Amino acid sequence: MIEISSLSKRFGKITALNELSLNVKKGELLGIIGPNGAGKTTAIRIISCILHPDQGQVMVGGYDVGKNPLEIKSMIGYLPEEPNLYERFKAYDLLKYFGELYGVPKDLLDSRIEELLELIGMSDRAQHRINTFSKGLRQRVGIARALVHDPEIIIFDEPTMGLDPATAISIREFIGGLKGEKTIILCTHYMDEADSLCDRVAILNQGQILDMGSPGELKSKIHGDLILKINLKDPAQFSQSDFKSIDSYSSVENIVLNGKDLDISLNSRKDISDIVKHIGSNLMAVNTKEPTLEDVFIQTVSNINRI
Prior knowledge:
Blueprint: E1 2-11, E2 14-24, E3 29-33, H1 40-47, E4 55-60, E5 63-64, H2 69-75, E6 76-79, H3 91-101, H4 106-119, H5 135-147, E7 153-157, H6 165-177, E8 183-187, H7 191-197, E9 200-205, E10 208-213, H8 215-220, E11 226-232, H9 240-247, E12 252-258, E13 261-266, H10 272-279, E14 283-289, H11 293-305
Parallel strand pairs: 3-8, 3-9, 6-7, 7-8
Antiparallel strand pairs: 1-2, 1-4, 4-5, 9-10, 11-13, 11-14, 12-13
């Protein structure tokens, strides 16, 4: 459905995307995770024909973003991190305005709007102005706006950022309900969101994909059956000799130091007490847990940053 080949984009001296290659299958929900400045938003804005690539090729539904932007825009519904809705419009009128822009047939538009308002749980707010809505309600209207022309592809950029937990859960359930019916790209900072929703996840950093696979496949790459998480009082006191000493224990598979957090992947619990004793007075807190997508992300990005 979406094919990206050797895509690069620069802003002055900053390289936002560096020879990025990626395919998204029809009906797939692909998650893109990465630190701030990794290139996530740049990539999806190029797919959406908002930005032009410097080099490489992006094909969407068989169309080239450089040659067929109008055809591609008609296929895509895009929800940016900040929807930037027209404040004075009423919710119904806003959706009607964008439906007309997208060329939705007039005899279908009213019923389409009513269907969407019901879908996002806002039928009772149809005649309320946008400037009276909370961020969560605006995000729902933004989703309806992205869906008003019934696009084949939907792109969400941080759809739950800054929302209260109940609203975030509601929007995640809504996105999950679209799986299979639509081709979806989800950019998010929330690892649990990517883990629960996505068919595949791409880890993006410095404009390149470091790894990609299903959440289960990515988590299986974390060596060991559990992770010993240690919070250090002073990471500067944790030396290379400490790394080597802990790495020498037979149960240790991998060690990652990220700020004050020391994550040690283990294949058994037998050396935990000895490792804790080795840390000694530099230990602030300790616990164990099974590997998560967040652990994969931290380990992958930390490894590349050390190269």
